[in-house]
């Protein structure tokens, strides 16, 4: 390394995944400029800020590919939603008419701050647009994106939760949002009276505006029908391989092995990514089976083995869809591993589902701890990868583009 280097940040004694020797990470202008053991011993190094990881595990900032900030923290308003997907949609629909920009912003900020202090530095939030709520939730998301840019990159995905083909106003709202700063477009064909036309119009809008797509899809455990194959066909026809993802896809948990292998091949060939949402999918699926309820979560680790881009994400927090949540992606990955019977030999793969793999699904450039990469770093309260994941280690501090963005001191016993 050249002599007399001056950096904005020097993070010393970091333990990186798969490495035995502690490393120093030097950052300049928001990017990782050097990585090596004892950099200060190898050259004359100066840094504006010096921090010591103390031998703890350092990861790139975590990636939440699927969350709904606009309808988080609604439990106090609708605790009697009745359970089930239809009940949750109906409960939130009744509330949306009274959403204000300030209300959505406040609730979204509450959830966003929880996620940030749990180590999330990239997030895709899905935002409902329809005549009931208009663009109010979208306007709140734009404010959140701007106000929290110091700590997180927030990507806004606008979508029609309650269908679009029944009302031309819905498509006009989607088009307006895309013109005013929405980053990508989503769809929800299973709530539309004409699912195929819904998909056709969403793909057409995406191509016209040159944006990626992220669908809510196949959210039940009935294997007799599916929209996933049509999504794969339309993805290839549009030339949108690598730019389409689907969330839920819980039907994949209800089909036999041969059908699953066939779907894995279709998804890999079409370049369609899949996000599992364990908290919501466990809570809403299989209710009619009582104590024999199936897990109802897409086995995305199987998809990853077949070359499909996959992730595990939050979805909903403290609302009728999911009356749980603290914004921790480590907890969500841990939950997925637990319910899929995945042991320590698979912990690294599950960790990828909220980091490297999730970044691949969202097409985040220069992600990861490597020279030239974005200096988005979190220091976990653990010095071993398996124990950090298995024990849901909390982050102690984070650095967004090389600037310290949060601290979360470890608990201390007072004997």
TrEMBL record:
SUPFAM superfamilies: Composite domain of metallo-dependent hydrolases, Metallo-dependent hydrolases. One of its GO terms (molecular function) is hydrolase activity, acting on carbon-nitrogen (but not peptide) bonds, in cyclic amidines. Signal peptide: none annotated. CDD domains: Bact_CD (cd01293). This is Amidohydrolase. Residues 111-383 form the Amidohydrolase domain. It comes from the Bacteria. Keywords: Hydrolase, Metal-binding. It comes from Azospirillum argentinense. PANTHER family: BLL3847 PROTEIN, CYTOSINE DEAMINASE. InterPro entries: Amidohydro_3, Metal-dep_hydrolase_composite, Metal_Hydrolase, Metallo-hydrolase_Enzymes.
């Amino acid at each position: 390394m050249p002599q007399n280097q001056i950096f904005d940040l020097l993070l010393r004694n970091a333990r990186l995944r798969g490495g035995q020797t502690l490393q120093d990470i030097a950052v300049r202008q928001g990017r990782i400029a050097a990585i090596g053991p004892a950099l200060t011993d190898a050259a004359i190094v100066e840094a504006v800020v010096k921090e010591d990881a103390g031998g703890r595990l350092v990861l790139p900032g975590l990636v939440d590919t699927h969350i709904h900030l606009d309808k988080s923290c609604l439990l106090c308003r609708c605790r009697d939603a009745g359970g089930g997907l239809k009940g949750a949609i109906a409960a939130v629909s009744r509330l949306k008419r009274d959403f204000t920009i300030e209300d959505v912003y406040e609730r979204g900020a509450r959830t966003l701050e929880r996620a940030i202090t749990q180590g999330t530095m990239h997030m895709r939030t899905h935002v409902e647009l329809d005549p009931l709520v208009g663009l109010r939730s979208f306007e709140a998301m734009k404010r959140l994106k701007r106000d929290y840019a110091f700590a997180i990159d927030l990507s806004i995905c606008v979508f029609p939760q309650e269908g679009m083909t029944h009302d031309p106003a819905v498509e006009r709202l989607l088009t307006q949002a895309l013109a005013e700063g929405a980053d990508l477009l989503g769809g929800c064909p299973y709530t539309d009276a004409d699912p195929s036309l819904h998909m056709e119009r969403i793909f057409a809008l995406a191509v016209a505006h040159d944006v990626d797509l992220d669908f809510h899809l196949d959210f039940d455990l009935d294997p007799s029908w599916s929209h996933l194959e049509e999504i794969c066909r339309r993805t290839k026809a549009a030339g949108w391989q690598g730019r389409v993802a689907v969330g839920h896809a819980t039907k994949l948990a209800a089909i036999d092995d041969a059908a699953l292998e066939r779907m894995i091949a279709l998804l890999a060939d079409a370049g369609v990514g899949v996000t599992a949402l364990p908290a919501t999918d466990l809570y809403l699926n299989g209710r009619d089976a009582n104590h024999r309820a199936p897990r109802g979560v897409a086995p995305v680790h199987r998809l990853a083995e077949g070359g499909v881009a996959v992730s595990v994400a939050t979805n909903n927090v403290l609302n009728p869809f999911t009356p749980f949540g603290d914004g921790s992606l480590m907890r969500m990955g841990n939950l997925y591993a637990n319910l899929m019977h995945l042991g320590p030999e698979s912990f690294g793969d599950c960790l990828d589902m909220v980091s490297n793999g999730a970044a691949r699904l969202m097409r985040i450039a220069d992600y990861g701890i490597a020279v030239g990469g974005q200096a988005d770093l979190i220091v976990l309260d653990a010095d071993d990868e398996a124990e950090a994941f298995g024990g849901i280690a909390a982050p102690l501090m984070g650095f967004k583009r090389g600037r310290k963005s949060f601290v979360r001191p470890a608990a201390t016993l007072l004997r």
